[in-house]
Amino acid sequence: MFVAAFRQKTVWLSGHTGFKGAWLAQWLLEMGARVHGFSLAPSTPPEPTFFDQLGLAGRMEHQIADVRDPAAVAKSIAAAQPDFVFHLAAQAILRASYELPLETYATNVMGTVHVLEALRGLKKPCAAVLVTTDKCYENREWVYGYREEDPLGGFDPYSSSKAAAEIAISAWRRSFFGAHPVRIASARAGNVIGGGDWAKDRIVPDCIRQLQRNEPIPVRSPRATRPWQHVLEPLSGYLWLAARLAGFGVPALAGNAPENANIQPAKAGTPNPIASAFNFGPGHDSNRSVEALVTEVLKHWPGRWEDRSDPNAVHEAKLLQLATDKASALLGWCPVWNFVTTIEQTVRWYRETSRNPDTVPALTSRQIADYQAAAAAASLPWAL
After folding, report:
1. pLDDT for the residue numbered 287
2. Which helix (H) or strand (E) holds 85?
3. Separation CA 335–CA 237 (nearest Å)
4. C-alpha torsion angle, residues 207, 369, 322, 149 (rounded to 10)
5. How far apart are CA 324 and CA 189, in angstroms?
6. For 249-266, how does the pLDDT look when each residue is reduced to its tens digit (9 = 90+)?
7. Which pTM was predicted?
């Protein structure tokens, strides 16, 4: 179903040089899409960037630009004339948002508005998925998963900027895109892990760096729980959401067409409940503490960790999970890999590529294929 939707289609992708963006670009290219990337230059940590390891610059349209520049965004989207848009560009590090609150808001809120405004200028059908985060909800530290209708908010600049971006997406969708050929949806996911992530202040890259040095892993919030998921989980949700938004696939929204049939994109102006916000999170099994995550990592790469809890550290939520009932009901989407498999696949990527960096493209493609095969075995609509 993905191949039917994206083969020979033009995709405009912001944030393609980042961790999630590079995985998404790789997957789209493997499906035969023409990908136009729009992003800041890849970051330069001591480790090589995932974007460079995949050799993406030579395989797609690679534009270095800033979503804070409205003219650049508008010119890029107008030139690409995309069939699909995935907006991932963001200042995505919570702790960094305390140091860079203005940059965080300028990128996450106004950057999103600039994409929305550029999409208003398109005169052709286009399905656009704008990505925010699970942290866009007003976190009350409760044990229930947050639903799409729950109040938005955020204690820190990062979380609140993403809530503000969601409010802007909703406002633009209702104000400007009702009868427009462009359809808008937003996607909320977070705590994504997987090979190729070298960002600072993220637990898995921190683990891998310390393990490579044979040094103890510093864990600052061992008892905080998160909905851990492999990067391919939300990406499959984004892709399937975009395909459904464009009119591909059936359940319930395509009249009397047979289940899982491939249909032509819907006509502009047709009401579509898919044009809304969706959560993409793991199963309840994957809502684990940071300590549990690190312990599972060490089963595959032996080492040790130390409790570095800091009572004076900046505020971070201790308890967070998402409800994905809406994605299940309207999209037929559900997670594929459980917690144990997610950690196993993630650590395998880092261990194998640490031994031989040249294996990055092949191993990345193999993990995409393994994930798709598992989804097909589970009879998920997008994988059939």
Report:
1. 87
2. strand 84-87
3. 9
4. 140
5. 10
6. 754 333 323 333 333 444
7. 0.91
